[in-house]
Amino acid sequence: MSYCTGGSFCFDCSDDGVSGYCWCCVGCKWDHTTDTGLCSGNRAVGLGSDSDSSWRCRNCGRREALYHRSSGNFPKGYIGWEWDDDDDDFLHRHDGADRRDFGTDAVESYSGVREVELEMAVGNVTVERHDGDTIEVETVGVAEELKFHSYMEENTLKLEAKKRVTGIEGAEDGTVYLRIPRDLSLDEVSLMVGVGELQVEDISTRDLSVEVGVGNGVVHNFQAAEASLECGTGTLEATGSVTQELDMENDVGNIIYHAAGNRKEYNYEISCGAGEIVIGEEVYYGIKPEEKINNNVQKLINIECNVGDITVDFTGA
Question: What is the mean pLDDT of the chain?
Fold first, then answer.
């Protein structure tokens, strides 16, 4: 599979009329009712200048996650999300006794947590087990200007940083470590990294959601009832099992899933545009709107692939 680098042949993209390359963003999943989300499909933005007002996605009119596929650069430093409100105003919405602000190198512990939501527009995240009895969050080399912080909403631990990183030196260098007690199974875990590396080791939860934008993600040994894997232009590789349903959605990147069991232990719903889906030894492409494969079992794998690739192999016989 050759990805878009501009020129005369380009799925859902167009020449920007200036540099001879097309400008893509990596999809559009913006919730206009709450002004939150991540623009992450492959819609042409077809722009002609570097001004802020022109950096907009044709699909949603916003400027999130615009990515120059020929150079790997982002316009004007906009990475991940762009808020209608000033970014600092958004950060102060959660001021209160339960808010904790992290410095460049800091450690905080949390008890009574049943759900975790982490959003990082830029930076590295490692999720791992430890022998303690509380959830531990540590920052190493995270730029203070990112204003990484946490707060609790009932029993949900929320971890956030600035979405707008223009001019923040070393924004991509720091790492956030999320350590979960070895014997703790959570109700829900949601992890979203725009640009950076995501590493997840041995996680157990009822609902798991993992999303990477331009970066790379590796998830080892997850157990969940339901799980969701989403990828923009990067790579996401996961190994684990679901008891009910797994949803995979890929735009122009690459998802590799090592499934427990064998091919006939799952039903499938697959949809594929210009990309390619491989399930075991079977290859699918050009399937619209979708194809259903019924093996008369309980578990379902739902696959949607745009221009990139999704591969499912099996760890069982």
Answer: 75
**Could you give phi then psi for residue 25, rounded to 5 degrees?**
-110, 170
CB atoms within 10 A of CB 35: 14
Q: What Å distances lie between residue 296 and 110, 180, 242, 264, 267, CA to CA?
A: 43, 36, 16, 9, 7
Q: Is the pTM of this model over 0.85?
A: no
Query: Phi first, then psi: what are they for 108, rounded to 5°?
Result: -135, 150
CA torsion angle for 172, 173, 176, 177 (degrees, to 10)?
A: 140
Find tokens 């200048």 and name the residue.
Answer: 49
pLDDT in the model for residue 178? 97
Burial level of 103, CB count in 10 A (0-12/13-18/19+)? exposed
Q: What burial letters (b/e) apply to 255-268, b meaning 16+ CB within 10 Å? A: bbbbbbeebebbbb
3-state SS of the chain: helix, strand, coil percent to 5?
Answer: 5, 50, 40
Q: Report residue 21 as tokens.
A: 């390359």
Read off the tokens for 116. Answer: 């975790």
Q: What is the distance of C-alpha 271 from the center of its chain?
A: 20
Task: Give the integer Cα–Cα distance in Å for 43 and 40.
Answer: 9
